[in-house]
Amino acid sequence: MKKTFLFLLFAAFAIAATAQDYSKVMLNYQLKKYEDAKSDIDKLSTDSKAQDKPETYLWKAAIYGQLYADSALTGKYPDAAQQSMAAFNTYLQKDPSLKMLKEGNASAAINGLAWLYSASFNNGKKYFTESKWPEAFQEFKRATELSEFINKNGFNSNKSLIDTFTVLYTGYAAQNMGKPDSAVAYYEKLADLKTGGADLQPMYQYMLDDYSKMNQPEKFTKYLAIAKELYPDKANLWSQMEMSNMSQNASLDQIMTKYQQDSATTLTEDQLVNYAETFANPQQLQSLDSNKQVQYKLTAAGIYKRAFNQNPNQGIYAYNAGLLNYNIFNDLEDRRYALRGESAALKTQRTEVEKQQQVYADSAIAWLEKGYEILKAKTDRDRIEANSLDHAVDYLANLYMWKREQTKGTNSAAATKDYDKYDAKFKQFDAEHGKYKM
Fold first, then answer.
1. How far is CA 393 from the centre of its chain?
2. Which of 40, 180, 234, 437 could crosslink 25 through cysteines, CB 3.0-4.6 Å?
3. Where is the signal peptide (predicted)?
4. Cα distances (angstroms) measured from residue 148 to each of 163, 164, 401
């Protein structure tokens, strides 16, 4: 990234003084006798009349700025930069129109501020390369304040609205010293101007992550839109961050409403997976009643099916759709077990639960087998895929064993045929137990 250089319009030095009190100060300043000029301005600063004059503080800011910028003097006056900025801020209060800076003899003082900027910037770079983050932040912060003042008030021939490099590295230093609020404040200066470039993409990511953590929905929405505009090729990343923000700061019902709205458009594979993972998240579901949990699991399963239809090579999507149906089946199995007993009422209730189980068992088998076939055929499975395949054979064995047991108690030829079919399937998958674990 190229730094935005400040091309200052250095005012010509004026020797003639309109006020005798400042002639010696200006002369020593012009002759670069900064220590003598310091003695002069320090003496003036104790005078009650001079204390009310804005030029006292302007000259003090300029002189102390030169002391800080002078490599031979800066060590002798370690607080010169702080003194310069304090005097400059007092000047701004006493001369808000900047008349002293823009006209007359005191206009030469802008050079001292320019040198203070330059020294602060260079020291900031030095501290940054040494990983001295607090020191780097203070130097860059001062440089940023001065560059913003110079740019805003036309003391710079370069019409750039912002000193991009200085602002960015002020934010970096704050980020590295663990001050996200300060970092984001500087990053916003760049983002508000829609400053882009490959180097700045992580900056937007950091901002959005902080807004999400701090639950600042308006800022998240504003800067997400800018990030999407500047980096359309990172659509998947912004989608993930948007979903993560919703997961942290919105209820499942709110996310469901958003999904239903988005479903009217063509959702990408990554967007579908983000929604599915959110609705299937056990931590999100644990506070809901059982009916609500089933609703969200089925929604998640349906979304995984949509993702699989977009990318049929992703066996993990089919596996997840089957797993969610298997989980519902298992919950019903727990309910069925709780209804054990020989009374007519209990038998009726068990029969009703078993009817529901059949639906979820069939759906689980269909999608687990899809996932099983694809993952088994894959020769470069990663750990998640391998473990999913390993679980799939166990779940399928359990499901076929259950379906086999459901055929008992009926002596028909069809029941016998089903028993043999399910038993063969059970034995097939049971024989593969532990085979694919990584």
1. 39
2. 40
3. 1-19
4. 7, 10, 74
Quickly count: other Cβ atoms within 10 Å of residue 219's Cβ.
Answer: 17
pLDDT in tens, 315-329: 999 999 999 999 999
Are 339 and 346 contacting, i.e. CB atoms less than 8 angstroms apart? yes
Calpha distance 258→221 (Å, rounded): 14
Query: Looking at the DSSP assignment, which residues form a beta bridge with residue 8?
Result: 156
Q: For residue 98, what are its two tokens?
A: 């900047």
Domain ranges of the chain: 16-159, 312-438
For 38, residues 6+ apart whose C-beta sits below 8 A from its C-beta are 63, 64, 67, 77
Cβ contacts of 125-128, under 8 Å, gap ≥ 24: 125/169, 127/173, 128/169, 128/172, 128/173
For residues 330-346, one letter each, b for 16 or more C-beta atoms within 10 angstroms of the residue's C-beta and e for the rest, the string is: bbbbeebeebeeeeeee
Q: Which long-range contacts (CB under 8 A, 24 or more apart) does 37-42 make?
A: 37/63, 37/66, 38/63, 38/64, 38/67, 38/77
Residues of the chain with pLDDT > 90, as a percent, come to: 75
What mean pLDDT is predicted for residues 64-69? 95
d(CA 161, CA 387) in angstroms, rounded, equals 55
Calpha distance 170→167 (Å, rounded): 5
99-112 pLDDT, tens per residue? 888 876 667 788 89
As a residue count, the chain comes to 438
Mean per-residue pLDDT, 107-132:
93
Mean pLDDT taken over the chain? 91
| 21: confidence class by pLDDT, cuts 50, 70, 90 | confident
Place of tokens 């399963």: 301
Would you state the pLDDT for residue 106?
64
**Exposure string over 97-113, b if 16+ CB within 10 A, otherwise e:** ebebbeeebbbbbbbbb
- Of residues 337 and 14, more confidence is placed in 337
Q: Say how far apart CA 207 and CA 205 lie, in whole Å.
A: 5
